[in-house]
Automatic annotation (TrEMBL):
Domain YhaN AAA: 1-202
Taxon lineage: Bacteria, Bacillati, Bacillota, Bacilli, Lactobacillales
Stored SUPFAM superfamilies: P-loop containing nucleoside triphosphate hydrolases
Source organism of the structure: Limosilactobacillus reuteri (Lactobacillus reuteri)
Gene3D superfamilies: P-loop containing nucleotide triphosphate hydrolases
Protein name (database record): AAA family ATPase
Highest taxon, organism lineage: Bacteria
Length: 832
């Protein structure tokens, strides 16, 4: 059945409203109070009738408040034909009419014919579920699902269920185990009272008791003789029958000798052995899989040994050295920049004099030179004073600029570095031009040219004019300072290069030609690899322990199953699977031979042949027949004698009862016993009929049970991304098997996974039963707890279900709008 169109005349908040269910699955969205539940109740009510408004159903009628119209219609497609089902206000669920595509109309009977055995309760139990059903998934049990399977597996099961209820009602009107007012209960109680009264009456006569004992003994003899007679009569009839069949049996035995099948296993034992073979092979396969996994883990383990704790510590030490060398490298870079500036300044000083510069003079040497040059103290003092002030200012400017330059380099502040360099350079240039001006002054008169020249040669000043010797001392001093600083930078560089060379020697060859940054990155990678390797080792250790436990359990199961299988093999006198296969072939050949033998002995049943085989020849059979006839004659005489004794005892007992009370009580009890026997037979007849119907219903649906489980397993695997592979309905409840063969009860699963299991079972049931009961599947907000990934899988499954059944999904989750699916938006209809 597929619902194509819906028209609501008036139902709850909806009135004069049309819906087209063109999509499949049909997704209907609406927030709370949008009318989803009302629409869903309308669909069910049109098919199965309006609620009667009594008890808990008083709020389930959805009688509209804004219109007098109540009801509507559904256009449905059944087996390729369209039918218009219309239901309006009326008694017993409303007045219904059914119109087919040819214009023919019908009523309630026509609708029942279309719906078949389906009613409201069965439909809501099988084809409709919502979030409330999913939250109660922990209460799922095997009996409920088997009941659903039984109801749909047998055609007309609703009528059979009604007949069962009728028989049970009739049986309960006769007898209930704890009742008092029912006829059989009252008769049993009266029978016990009569028995007590009879026992009291019998206690009056001692002779009566003796006679009663004799009567019981004779009655026992009679019953025993009658029982023996009953048992011997069939035996005698059987022997007479065998005596008549002996000529046929003799001819059959002469023409063909059937091989005995007594040494072969039963069909149940063969089936059990084959099942054990399959389980044994599966366990062996799992053992091999675990062994292969252990081998894989062991093969991977040696690769992690290169990351031992000692090697990780060495890598950590090298990393720390790389960090220190990087800091030293940055310092060397800054010093080299400063050295380049110093070298430029030194070059400018050397360029200024065009000759190699000697060492600067000491203060004493400067005083001696002044004396030789005959510089007046006052003039020298004035000159010194004039030169000292600018020289002191110049030194302050140079030192300040140098300090700013160093601070800028250390702080990585380019602006401060530039300011410091400019200040130092400007101060040097100022001092240079000032000294050039002083050179133009008249040279002091010399008093001793030879002494001055000797002083100049001694101190390396002979290449310069004597009047510049004193003036150039500042440059000579700066030259010496710059040379010393450059030498210090060179020594620091050599020390750094030595440390770097030692560090490179400690590195692996593959890292020796890389930069410190690259080396540091590689060392970080090696540390991460080492840590990952240790984590892998720990994970492998845990996995090996788990596998070992699983292997131990598998070995136990394998040993148990192997022992069970070998026990059956021992009965068949075989020792392995190959011999068992040959045994089955021999067994099949023997069965074929037995069938061929039956064709020759069609006049003899298997029971007749077995009975005739007990006699070696015809004379032995005739002897047994004569003996049975003699025993039957003796039993007949015994019964006749017992009857005579019983009659005598009863006559004497009757004579002992003066007032006739005992006789009346016994007669009354005998009449009551007959009545009880009739009532018990009637009660048992109802009970046996109920059991027969239940067995018939189970037999009619048992072939669908495995198919439903297989289909549900496929859906459950799809919803869980194949994390679970099997579903088992056991006496303990519903269980699932995970991909690693771990078994979980429903109570052990997460709420989302348990809901997925429930949905898989429900939809698997619907899919398998769609050939006998194809109805729309209605889902009311069934996936609230699902994330986007699970919701996508669920929608994909609904599309698969929609290939056979119509799917109508109601939801208030606005996230459905973000998915690429077609929806029917109730909010967009703008209905109050």
């Amino acid at each position: 059945m597929k619902i194509k169109k819906v028209h609501i005349d008036g139902f709850g908040k909806w009135h004069d409203q049309d819906f087209d269910f063109t999509a499949n699955p049909q997704i209907i969205y609406g927030p709370n109070e949008a009318g989803k539940t009302t629409l869903m109740a309308f669909l069910v009510s049109i098919l199965f009738g309006f609620a009667d408004g009594r008890g808990k159903n008083r709020f389930a009628q959805y009688i509209p408040k804004t219109t007098s119209s109540y009801g509507g219609s559904l256009l449905v497609e059944i087996n390729g034909h369209d039918y218009l089902i219309k239901r309006q206000r009326g008694r017993n669920g409303g007045k219904v009419s059914v119109t087919d595509s040819q214009g023919r109309q019908g009523g309630e009977q026509e609708l029942k014919h279309l719906l078949g055995p389906m009613d409201r309760s069965l439909y809501q139990a099988l084809f409709s579920f919502g979030q409330r059903d999913l939250t109660a998934v922990d209460e799922l049990n095997r009996e409920e699902w088997q009941q659903h399977l039984q109801q749909l597996g047998a055609v007309g099961s609703a009528q059979w269920d009604q007949l069962i209820s009728q028989y049970q009602k009739h049986a309960d009107q006769l007898y209930k185990p704890r009742g008092r007012k029912w006829p059989l209960n009252q008769d049993l109680h009266q029978y016990a009272d009569l028995t007590d009264k009879i026992d009291q009456a019998r206690g009056k006569f001692h002779r009566y008791q003796d006679l009663q004992a004799n009567l019981r003994t004779n009655e026992e003899k009679l019953r025993q003789a009658q029982a023996d007679l009953t048992n011997h009569q069939p035996l005698l009839q059987k022997l007479e029958h065998l005596h008549q069949l002996w000529p046929v049996y003799h001819e059959w035995q002469s023409s063909h000798q059937t091989q005995s099948l007594a040494d072969y296993l039963t069909d149940q034992q063969v089936t059990t052995a084959q099942e054990l073979q399959v389980r044994e092979k599966e366990l062996h396969r799992q053992q091999q899989a675990y062994q292969e996994r252990l081998t894989t883990i062991d093969h991977q383990a040696p690769q992690a040994t290169k990351h031992s704790p000692q090697s990780i510590q060495e890598i950590q030490r090298l990393k720390e050295q790389a960090v220190e060398l990087q800091a030293e490298e940055a310092l060397q870079h800054r010093q080299q920049t400063q050295a380049n500036q110093w070298q430029q300044e030194l070059t400018r000083i050397k360029t200024r004099y065009y000759h190699p510069l000697p060492a600067p003079l000491t203060p004493q040497e400067k005083a001696e030179l002044a004396r030789l040059l005959n510089v007046q103290p006052l003039s020298r003092a004035n000159t010194s004073q004039a030169n000292s002030d600018p020289s002191r200012a110049a030194m302050i400017g140079i030192i300040g600029g140098f300090v700013l330059f160093i601070v800028g380099l250390l702080a990585n502040a380019t602006f401060i570095t530039v300011i410091g360099a400019i200040a130092a350079f400007a101060t040097v240039m100022y001092l240079y031009y000032q000294r050039q001006g002083s050179h133009s002054a008249p040279a002091p008169a010399t008093t001793d040219s030879q002494a001055i020249m000797a002083f100049g040669r001694k101190h390396g000043l002979q290449d310069f004019p004597p009047d510049q010797w004193l003036l150039m001392q500042g440059d000579l001093q700066r030259n010496a300072e710059l040379a010393a600083q450059l030498q210090s930078v060179k020594q620091d560089r050599q020390r750094y290069d030595h440390q770097l060379a030692i560090f490179n020697q400690q590195l692996p060859p593959i890292l020796q030609d890389l930069t410190l940054t690259a080396v540091r990155t590689k060392l970080n990678d090696l540390l991460e690899q080492g840590q990952q390797a240790r984590q892998d080792i720990q994970a492998n250790t845990r996995e090996k322990a788990t596998i070992a436990n699983n292997l131990a359990q598998l070995n136990q199961d394998y040993s148990k199953i192997h022992q069970q299988k070998m026990a059956i093999y021992q009965q068949a006198r075989v020792h392995d699977d190959n011999q068992f296969t040959q045994y089955l072939a021999n067994r099949s050949a023997a069965q074929s031979q037995a069938l061929a033998s039956d064709a020759y002995g069609q006049q003899l049943t298997a029971e007749d042949r077995q009975a005739l085989a007990a006699y070696a020849n015809k004379d032995e059979l005739i002897t047994a027949l004569s003996k049975a006839r003699h025993q039957l004659d003796q039993l007949t005489l015994t019964i006749s004698h017992a009857h005579e004794e019983i009659q005598k005892d009863k006559v004497e007992i009757d004579s002992l009862v003066e007032d006739g009370t005992l006789s009346n009580l016994e007669q009354e009890r005998a009449n009551l016993a007959a009545k009880i026997w009739h009532e018990v037979q009637e009660w048992l007849r109802y009970q046996l009929a109920i059991q027969w119907i239940n067995k018939a219903l189970v037999g009619a649906s048992v072939d669908r049970y495995p198919a439903i489980i297989r289909q549900a397993e496929q859906y459950f695997a799809l919803l869980t991304a194949h994390r679970y592979s099997q579903i088992r309905l056991t006496a303990d409840g519903v269980k699932v098997v995970r991909r690693d063969q771990e078994i979980f009860l429903v109570e052990e699963l997460s709420q989302g996974t348990a809901e997925q299991l429930y949905i898989a079972l429900r939809l698997g049931f619907v899919t398998v039963m769609s050939d006998q009961a194809n109805f729309p599947v209605i889902i009311d907000d069934g996936f609230v707890n699902f994330d986007n990934v699970r919701r996508q899988r669920m929608l994909a499954l609904l599309e698969k279900i929609a290939e056979k059944n119509q799917v109508i999904y109601f939801t208030a989750d606005d996230r459905i709008k973000d998915l690429d699916v077609k929806i029917l938006d109730l909010q967009a209809l703008k209905r109050e």
